[in-house]
Write a structure and sequence with these properties.
single chain; mainly alpha; 2% strand; globular; binds carboxymethyldethia coenzyme *A; Citrate_synth-like_lrg_a-sub; Citrate synthase
Length: 435
């Protein structure tokens, strides 16, 4: 059976031909008009990028290489004794468009475990960060520093032919993914005083090792949660802030480490990945204010107070989705199976019942339904990972799968520097004044 790199090498030539053929046939066709509001409105809905790994349908949600979340849950290999998909398989799927065998997935687990160590100076860099520095800032710092050993940067400096870019990009991507649990584990233990980081176990899968580094490796349900979590947070088509940032920065031929640290900084914003932290902060404040078994009326009042205070309801709404996020549903099903009586889960379920109607009544949000971040924190809290400030780091471990898969393909397909045109308000005004 081919390794991931061997399979990728086989797939690149026909994919290049396919892109060439699609461009020859459709290259000059138009998607329709661009309107001025899109320039002012965060480019919402503007067709602007090619991203092979996943596509987001407003009603149906994400498909990874054409497959929905329930489909990948069924199709991807599982760990012995586990029932959640292994994220190793999702990475294989994102890169190749193919479902790997159990053996190929085991090969990836072993390769990532073997590459997991980080340079001593990066360990020291993390250890020197004050615990008051947000875990996402520490994460991004450490990932930036990994560029010290970038195979791509080195090959570029030595004058590599552009046709060969994908090879060292692949190696850097594998290293990056492999090292993220070590970095994430070290940050967790430093910030929350959880003692020394254990060694990576070369026999264990990626999620099991991550759980172990965080101190939850003995808890089978938590390990299963990590497998599901890392799978569903990996990719969400190309235009979201983290995916797009990774692609944009990579287009300058910045190596995968510095491209991904830029993506992490975008993920660290409260309207994007930090929303998983915000949700838990919001729910705990709600519990403190109205108690743990609050009535629907009390919850509604709290939600309205949030809106009237000029704040968003974290975990609700989406720039593209118009229905409940299937990533929310997958986590809700996990909760129904493993923690149906958890008090905080009950509150999350109660909020799900009440918030959409309130957001509809408030009349602003285009999508009143919950997104992925509305559910992840309650699951982590249930197992004792209740340090909310850390939640986005786990999102960041997962999102690397999608961003690097795309960086590999961008370099393989010779994606150009990104450089859209910007306009001044004066220019817009002049352009349309006499029309
Ligand atoms: N609570 C209150 N108001 C909301 C809202 C929410 N959950 N979602 C949208 N709105 C408001 C917007 O703030 C905007 O108000 P203004 O016109 O005053 O600026 C208006 O509704 C229209 O926004 P929209 O077109 O529906 O949404 P956008 O595409 O602009 O933004 C998002 C999308 C996710 C940033 C927004 O829904 C939001 O802020 N949600 C809460 C934060 C969150 O959960 N983010 C995580 C998203 C998933 C992820 O990336 O991880």
């Amino acid at each position: 059976q081919p390794t991931l790199k061997e399979r990728l090498a086989e797939l690149i030539p026909p994919t290049l031909e396919r892109v060439k053929a699609v461009r020859a046939e459709h290259g000059k066709k138009s998607f329709g008009p661009v309107i001025v509001d899109q320039l002012y409105g965060g480019m919402r809905g503007l067709p602007a990028l090619i991203w092979e790994g996943s596509v987001l349908d407003p009603d149906e949600g994400i498909r990874f290489r054409g497959k929905t979340i329930p489909e990948i849950q069924a199709a991807l290999p599982k760990a012995p004794g586990g029932s959640e998909p292994l994220p190793e398989g999702l990475f294989w799927l994102l890169v190749t468009g193919e479902i790997p065998t159990a053996e190929q997935v085991a090969g990836l687990s072993a390769e990532w475990a073997a590459r997991a160590a980080i340079p001593e100076f990066v360990e020291e860099l993390i250890d020197r960060c004050p615990p008051t520095l947000h875990p996402m800032s520490q994460f991004s710092l450490a990932v930036t520093a990994l560029n010290h050993d970038s195979a791509f940067a080195k090959a570029y400096a030595q004058g590599i032919n552009k046709k060969e870019y994908w090879g060292p990009t692949f190696e850097d991507s594998m290293d990056l993914i492999a090292k993220l649990p070590t970095i994430a584990g070290r940050i967790y233990r430093n910030v929350y005083g959880k003692g020394k980081l254990p060694a990576i176990d070369l026999q264990k899968d990626y999620s099991h090792n991550l759980a172990n580094l965080l101190g939850f490796g003995e808890n089978h349900a938590f390990v299963e949660l990590m497998r599901l979590y890392l799978t569903i947070h990996s990719d969400h088509e190309g235009g979201n802030v983290s995916a797009h940032t990774g692609k944009l920065v990579g287009s300058a031929l910045s190596d995968p480490f510095i491209s991904y640290s830029a993506a992490l900084n975008g993920l660290a914003g409260p309207l994007h990945g930090l929303a998983n932290q915000e949700v838990l902060v919001w729910l705990t404040k709600m519990q403190a204010k109205i108690g743990t078994d609050a009535t629907d009326e009390a919850v509604k009042e709290y939600v309205w107070a949030t809106l009237k205070g000029g704040q968003v309801v974290p975990g609700y709404g989406h720039a593209v989705l118009r229905k409940t996020d299937p990533r929310y549903i997958a986590q809700r099903e996990f909760a129904l199976k493993h923690l149906p009586d958890d008090k905080l889960f009950k509150l999350v379920a109660q909020v799900y019942k009440l918030v959409p109607d309130i957001l509809l009544e408030a009349g602003k949000a285009k999508n009143p339904w919950p997104n992925v971040d509305a559910h992840s924190g309650v699951l982590l809290t249930h197992y004792g990972l209740d340090q909310m400030g850390y939640y986005t780091v786990l999102f960041g471990v997962s999102r690397a799968f999608g961003v690097t898969a795309q960086l590999i393909w961008d370099r393989a397909l010779g994606a150009p520097l990104e450089r859209p045109k910007s306009y001044s308000t004066e220019a817009i005004d002049k352009m349309f004044k006499n029309k």
